[in-house]
Amino acid sequence: MKLIPFKNWFAQLPGLSRRQQERVRQALGPHEPAVPESLQWLQTMPVPACPLCQAEHPYRWGYQAGAQRYRCRHCRHTYTALSGTPLARLRHKARWLTYSEALQAGLTVRQAALRCGIHKNTSFRWRHRFLTLPADRKAAHLEGIVEADETFFAYSCKGQRHLDRPPRQRGQQIHTREPDRNKCPCGWCATALGLPLISNWR
Ligand SMILES: [Zn+2]
Q: Is the whole-model pTM more than 0.70?
């Protein structure tokens, strides 16, 4: 196809219906799926309540950026399952799952950007959005064993003019694994200086 007919054909693409867009994608061969996996997963979730008035049983109201849009029967607000979440208005939905895998693998911002084919600034923004999401969805129920143990900190004499001990150099090991409860574990701190002890380490 020559350039000008191709441009004319290409300009008409946004006017295609969803069914027609799907046929074009199938004709072009395997690329990104018409409905990204992240949106397929969203479609399996229960229909969300209205984020404004919490009313349930909304109307289906077309699509927004590939996601099912709903309209509240009560306040007529339109929304999707992503409205009001940190993932709202994020683009490139087909790469969300890859990005979440990159986050779980502990990749850096730039490495994750390279893996997902996005700009590093986008990767930085996504990182904060993705990490905000679990913070919003706090667990209502905890299981398993939770353990907490004491923590020891070395007494800092920074700025004091008269030390009764040799100055500690950086890089020295000051903590011990089995501290004496009557003595600070670092060996250089309150006990050595004759300062009052913290009576209860627990
Ligand atoms: Zn509503």
A: no
